Amino acid sequence: MSFKSWTAAALLAGAAFTPAAHATVVSYSQNLLFNAATQSFWGPGGSSASFSSSRMFGSEGLGISYAVSASTGTISGAYAGTISGSYMDWVGGDSEMWRGTFAFSGTAGQSLTSAIGARINVIAHALGGDVCIICANYSLSGMLATGPALDQVTSASDVMTFASPGVGANIGIGTVKAGVDLKIQENLKFAPLAVSAVLKATSKHGSVVSENVYFDVNGTPLEVGLFLPSRGDWSFDFTDIKLVKTFDNDFLLNIDPFVSYTVGVRCGDPGTNRDNGWLCLADDKATFHLAGVSLYNGDPFALNFSSPDATAFSVHEAPEPGSLALLLGALGVGGLLRRR
Q1: Cβ neighbours of residue 71 closer than 8 Å, sequence gap 6 or more
Q2: Assign residue 266 a region: left if phi > 0, alpha if psi is -120 to 50, beta otherwise?
Q3: What is the pLDDT of residues 160-203, one digit of tens each?
């Protein structure tokens, strides 16, 4: 075989056996922030005032009545996490399987904040008259950390306390004194259950293949595979990223009121006649206790969170352009030698 023939054979062999570029394992990390814009505290379709409670203790002659209602209720906040993993940046040949491994982990540092407006009326009743102990609008703000791990319930409680040690009033035929200790407790619960997404691959010619991805165990890797049906560059992107979650809330009421009256003078301790002077015509006192009254206990619901964007990454599927050029060149040299 001549030198030229050996040269052509070598070129052909080199073209045939020049390896395609080896796939490189590339690390991937994408921080995600799910934002919950200000929305109804009471869930989808919830009104601005979604609880009310009222009750009468005793009687109009000697008693206490209360009425508590919500006037507003909103919540907002955020949840954060990271999709991380690795993938092959090159796949050789048509209809080859591309593979990547990814996991989602929640991160700390975010929270939910609630703002509740309430109207509270506590009225003392005695001797046919009424005395307002507490009659006003109030607000209650709560904060709940939202993390970090998936399928982990976080909870928080905030308390609104009112104390009126004694309100006195002259109602014409006697004197009334009343007071109350009142507490409203707000309980919040949040559970990030999973993160769902669609991993979409788009070729430069517009072909699209995709795979649904569901991260439901914090930090546990998932292997994802996609068949790429054509050669060329492909752009990969996590799209339609959603946080699967539940939110729950309830309100409890504790109230300890008292009311007393005296008619006349030189009355001792109301309700105890032994210490009354002869000018004391009458006195009386009543105390009440009520604990753990459920003002509101809503069903768990899904807060509305935004879908964050993720950065795209590229994957190439084709023999190396250098290999194709070398093969074509070798074939051209071989044909030229044969003609000579």
Answers
A1: 48, 49, 117, 118, 119, 137
A2: left
A3: 888 887 777 766 667 889 999 999 999 999 999 999 999 999 99
